[in-house]
Amino acid sequence: MLKLKSDTRGAKEIIGTIRLEENLGLNKPKSFKVAIIGGGISGLCSALFLKQLGCDVTIFEKDKLVKGEGAGIQLTSNGLFVLEKLKLGKLVVEAGLKPKNLCLFDETDFKSIGSLEILERLKSRYGKSFITLHRSFLIKILFEKVKEEEIKVSFGSRALPLVSKNERNIYISYKGKKIKKDLIIVADGVGSMWKKNIFKETNSRTISQTAYRFVLSKKTLPPIFSKNNINLFFGRGRHFVTYPTGNNGMVNFVFCKREKGQTINNWKEMVTKQKFLNDFELNETLKTCLPDVQQIYRWPIIESGIPTIIHKKNVVMVGDSALSMLPYMAQGANKALEDSWELANCIKEFPLDINKALNNYSKKRIKRIHQLDQVSRLNEKVYHLEQRVLRKILFLVLRSLTRFSPNLFFKRLDWIYNYKG
């Protein structure tokens, strides 16, 4: 009897230990067979996190190689937090630059509105300084890690959705074959075929605006652009931003403009310098830079409707396929990084119930998406004020904040930059 009691007590201790480990999130999911549609930021990060959990991961990329196209991006402390979990933070910091100041200008005459020291301020407030770099640098770092982890990548053909007749199962159609996976992660961007077919998502809140982007060498730029700062120029019905794209000596220029009723349907096109000049009456200081412009890309600013759910059966969306926001908080890349981290955490939390894991992920991300969306839309209105009186009031407020209450400038955004999952 004594021996039996002892064994019972030992069994209870073992069960208690298992439950404690589960509560601490120490249990790992079974080896899910996972497909990731798209080799962008969210797709590559999702692959790396799920590989860490023991999943059998394959990335399907329609292009013949992982492309680092795009322009400059800003990585804020919430995005850098995620990259550190992949042990890539140091590499990204080395590839990018830490801007010293956020400088605000009136685009009309390039007159300074105010300036905020951000290098030390943000490090003190959030534990990390912001990083600016070219998107291709981040993609290269992520893809090198994918190769190091020996994650399979299938290039050169679209992986399309295939739904069974009874709609109970969702498969992948790839090069004429039907492929079954335990989990399909959709990371194929704002024009996602999977979103349209599986989630029947056709709604978009296209605010008729476009962005023009190009990069120039610091060597040819006036001092106002060549310094290691983020510059924000407020115009009437438009704005533009400049910042360095890392340690390559280049500066990213992004011009955003309301189109006054025009509808934008195409995604990205190269335009002539004259087309750009016709759309923007530029300050003379800026015009002097244009002879060195080689390529100007025009992008529609497309904002998709906020979904009510971002998963269906064994399919889940991350990055721009889940939601493409207005870019007026510089959170596109950071949101994509957050998505991949949050998804992996939810799968780790519920390793034996993929539906519960995806439900949990969907609820968490949609709540945050709503909040990020609201801030981005508010910034759009502020950046693009057209009435002269309202612009003067805005500039007065910004001068006061930057001079007398610089910490208030960021306090309202602490919930974004302090993200820890």
Give an account of the 3D structure.
Residues 1-27 have low confidence and may be disordered. The radius of gyration is 24 Å and the shape is globular. A hairpin with a 6-residue loop joins β8 and β9. The chain has helices spanning 2-23, 41-52, 77-85, 89-95, 119-126, 135-148, 193-198, 223-226, 273-279, 284-287, 332-349, 354-383, 388-404, 406-411, 414-417; strands at 33-37, 56-61, 72-75, 101-106, 111-117, 131-134, 152-155, 160-163, 170-174, 177-179, 183-186, 209-217, 229-234, 238-244, 250-258, 269-271, 296-300, 311-312, 315-317. The chain is an alpha/beta fold and 421 residues long.
Summarize the structure.
By secondary structure, this protein is of the alpha/beta class.
Distance between the termini: 49 Å
What overall form do the CA principal axes indicate?
Answer: globular
Rounded mean pLDDT is 86
Q: What structural category do the secondary elements indicate?
A: alpha/beta
Strand content: 15-25%
Give a short account of the largest sheet.
Answer: 8 strands, mixed
- The whole-angstrom Rg is 24 Å
Spans where pLDDT lies below 50 across 5 or more residues: 1-27
Percent helix range:
25-40%
Helix count from the secondary structure assignment: 15
- Give the total of beta strands: 19
